Protein backbone atom coordinates (compact mmCIF):
# COMPACT_ATOMS: atom_id res chain seq x y z
CA UNK A 1 0.00 0.00 0.00
CA UNK A 2 1.53 3.30 -1.10
CA UNK A 3 1.74 6.51 0.80
CA UNK A 4 -1.20 8.86 0.39
CA UNK A 5 0.93 11.94 1.02
CA UNK A 6 1.96 12.60 -2.59
CA UNK A 7 0.07 15.31 -4.49
CA UNK A 8 -1.10 12.72 -7.07
CA UNK A 9 -2.40 10.38 -4.35
CA UNK A 10 -4.22 13.23 -2.61
CA UNK A 11 -5.81 14.31 -5.90
CA UNK A 12 -6.89 10.73 -6.62
CA UNK A 13 -8.37 10.42 -3.13
CA UNK A 14 -10.28 13.71 -3.58
CA UNK A 15 -11.60 12.53 -6.95
CA UNK A 16 -12.77 9.25 -5.38
CA UNK A 17 -14.42 11.15 -2.54
CA UNK A 18 -16.27 13.45 -4.96
CA UNK A 19 -17.34 10.44 -6.99
CA UNK A 20 -18.62 8.74 -3.85
CA UNK A 21 -20.47 11.77 -2.49
CA UNK A 22 -23.85 10.56 -3.80
CA UNK A 23 -23.90 7.45 -1.56
CA UNK A 24 -23.02 9.59 1.45
CA UNK A 25 -25.79 12.07 0.64
CA UNK A 26 -28.19 9.14 0.30
CA UNK A 27 -27.01 7.88 3.70
CA UNK A 28 -27.43 11.31 5.31
CA UNK A 29 -30.94 11.63 3.87
CA UNK A 30 -31.77 8.14 5.12
CA UNK A 31 -30.37 8.91 8.57
CA UNK A 32 -32.46 12.08 8.85
CA UNK A 33 -35.65 10.28 7.76
CA UNK A 34 -34.77 7.37 10.04
CA UNK A 35 -34.13 9.52 13.14
CA UNK A 36 -37.28 11.62 12.71
CA UNK A 37 -39.39 8.52 12.04
CA UNK A 38 -37.87 6.56 14.91
CA UNK A 39 -38.51 9.42 17.33
CA UNK A 40 -42.12 9.60 16.05
CA UNK A 41 -43.08 5.91 16.46
CA UNK A 42 -46.13 5.89 18.75
CA UNK A 43 -45.37 4.89 22.33
CA UNK A 44 -48.30 2.47 22.21
CA UNK A 45 -46.63 0.48 19.41
CA UNK A 46 -44.63 -2.54 20.50
CA UNK A 47 -41.02 -1.67 19.58
CA UNK A 48 -40.23 -5.03 17.99
CA UNK A 49 -43.44 -5.06 15.94
CA UNK A 50 -42.65 -1.53 14.74
CA UNK A 51 -39.16 -2.66 13.68
CA UNK A 52 -40.48 -5.73 11.86
CA UNK A 53 -42.90 -3.51 9.90
CA UNK A 54 -40.03 -1.09 9.17
CA UNK A 55 -37.99 -3.97 7.74
CA UNK A 56 -40.91 -5.12 5.59
CA UNK A 57 -40.99 -1.59 4.13
CA UNK A 58 -37.19 -1.69 3.66
CA UNK A 59 -37.40 -5.06 1.89
CA UNK A 60 -40.17 -3.79 -0.37
CA UNK A 61 -38.10 -0.74 -1.30
CA UNK A 62 -35.05 -2.91 -2.01
CA UNK A 63 -37.11 -5.26 -4.18
CA UNK A 64 -38.52 -2.27 -6.04
CA UNK A 65 -35.01 -0.84 -6.51
CA UNK A 66 -33.90 -4.15 -8.04
CA UNK A 67 -36.14 -3.31 -10.99
CA UNK A 68 -33.80 -0.39 -11.77
CA UNK A 69 -30.62 -2.07 -10.46
CA UNK A 70 -31.09 -5.73 -11.44
CA UNK A 71 -28.92 -8.56 -10.22
CA UNK A 72 -26.69 -10.29 -12.75
CA UNK A 73 -27.52 -13.96 -13.14
CA UNK A 74 -29.80 -15.92 -10.87
CA UNK A 75 -30.85 -15.33 -7.28
CA UNK A 76 -28.65 -18.31 -6.34
CA UNK A 77 -25.67 -16.60 -8.03
CA UNK A 78 -26.41 -13.41 -6.08
CA UNK A 79 -26.67 -15.32 -2.77
CA UNK A 80 -23.53 -17.44 -3.24
CA UNK A 81 -20.90 -14.83 -2.23
CA UNK A 82 -22.74 -13.81 0.96
CA UNK A 83 -21.01 -14.71 4.23
CA UNK A 84 -21.18 -14.01 7.99
CA UNK A 85 -20.89 -10.28 7.39
CA UNK A 86 -24.44 -10.07 6.03
CA UNK A 87 -25.80 -11.63 9.22
CA UNK A 88 -23.67 -9.11 11.12
CA UNK A 89 -25.27 -6.25 9.17
CA UNK A 90 -28.71 -7.61 10.08
CA UNK A 91 -27.84 -8.09 13.75
CA UNK A 92 -26.22 -4.66 13.95
CA UNK A 93 -29.19 -3.02 12.24
CA UNK A 94 -31.62 -4.68 14.64
CA UNK A 95 -29.57 -3.53 17.65
CA UNK A 96 -29.45 0.01 16.25
CA UNK A 97 -33.20 0.02 15.64
CA UNK A 98 -34.14 -1.28 19.08
CA UNK A 99 -31.53 0.89 20.78
CA UNK A 100 -32.70 4.14 19.18
CA UNK A 101 -36.38 3.34 19.71
CA UNK A 102 -35.80 2.61 23.39
CA UNK A 103 -33.49 5.64 23.79
CA UNK A 104 -36.16 7.95 22.36
CA UNK A 105 -38.85 6.38 24.53
CA UNK A 106 -36.69 6.90 27.60
CA UNK A 107 -36.41 10.61 26.83
CA UNK A 108 -33.22 11.04 24.79
CA UNK A 109 -33.53 14.12 22.57
CA UNK A 110 -33.42 13.58 18.81
CA UNK A 111 -30.58 16.08 18.49
CA UNK A 112 -28.39 14.29 21.04
CA UNK A 113 -28.99 10.54 20.66
CA UNK A 114 -27.67 10.31 17.12
CA UNK A 115 -24.58 12.39 17.87
CA UNK A 116 -23.70 10.34 20.96
CA UNK A 117 -24.19 7.04 19.12
CA UNK A 118 -22.35 8.02 15.93
CA UNK A 119 -19.37 9.67 17.63
CA UNK A 120 -19.06 6.81 20.12
CA UNK A 121 -19.26 4.19 17.37
CA UNK A 122 -16.77 6.12 15.25
CA UNK A 123 -14.25 6.28 18.09
CA UNK A 124 -14.71 2.58 18.90
CA UNK A 125 -14.21 1.68 15.22
CA UNK A 126 -10.81 3.40 14.94
CA UNK A 127 -8.87 0.46 16.43
CA UNK A 128 -11.03 -1.98 14.47
CA UNK A 129 -10.18 -0.20 11.21
CA UNK A 130 -6.50 -0.28 12.11
CA UNK A 131 -6.41 -3.93 13.17
CA UNK A 132 -8.85 -5.57 10.77
CA UNK A 133 -8.73 -3.44 7.64
CA UNK A 134 -5.22 -2.01 7.60
CA UNK A 135 -6.45 1.58 7.79
CA UNK A 136 -4.00 4.28 8.76
CA UNK A 137 -4.37 6.83 11.51
CA UNK A 138 -2.59 10.08 10.72
CA UNK A 139 -2.07 12.97 13.11
CA UNK A 140 -4.93 15.01 11.53
CA UNK A 141 -7.27 12.02 11.90
CA UNK A 142 -6.23 11.57 15.54
CA UNK A 143 -6.86 15.26 16.15
CA UNK A 144 -10.26 14.97 14.47
CA UNK A 145 -11.16 12.04 16.72
CA UNK A 146 -10.05 14.06 19.76
CA UNK A 147 -12.23 16.99 18.65
CA UNK A 148 -15.15 14.57 18.27
CA UNK A 149 -14.63 13.39 21.84
CA UNK A 150 -14.47 16.98 23.10
CA UNK A 151 -17.63 17.74 21.12
CA UNK A 152 -19.34 14.71 22.60
CA UNK A 153 -18.49 15.87 26.12
CA UNK A 154 -19.71 19.42 25.35
CA UNK A 155 -22.96 18.35 23.71
CA UNK A 156 -23.72 15.85 26.49
CA UNK A 157 -23.24 18.49 29.23
CA UNK A 158 -26.06 20.73 28.05
Describe the structure.
The protein is an all-alpha fold and 158 residues long. The protein folds into two domains: 36-108; 109-158. It is built from seven helices and no strands. It has helices at residues 7-19, 21-40, 47-68, 75-79, 84-105, 110-133, 139-157. The chain is globular, with a radius of gyration of 19 Å. The N and C termini lie far apart (44 Å). The model has no long low-confidence stretch (mean pLDDT 90).
Q: How much β-strand is present in the residues?
A: under 5%
Alpha-beta content class: mainly alpha
The proportion of residues forming helix, as a percent range, comes to over 70%
Order of helices and strands: HHHHHHH
The separation of the N and C termini measures 44 Å
User: What is the number of E strands?
Assistant: 0
Q: What is the general shape?
A: globular
DSSP summary: helix tally: 7
Highlighted features:
mainly alpha; 2 domains; 79% helix; globular
Put the structure in a nutshell.
With 158 residues, the chain is mostly helical. It has helices spanning 7-19, 21-40, 47-68, 75-79, 84-105, 110-133, 139-157.
Amino acid sequence: MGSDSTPHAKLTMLARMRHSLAPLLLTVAGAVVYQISSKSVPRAAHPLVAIVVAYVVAMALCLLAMWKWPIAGSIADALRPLDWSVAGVGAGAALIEVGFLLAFRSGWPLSLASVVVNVSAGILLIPVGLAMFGERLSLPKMMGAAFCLVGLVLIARD
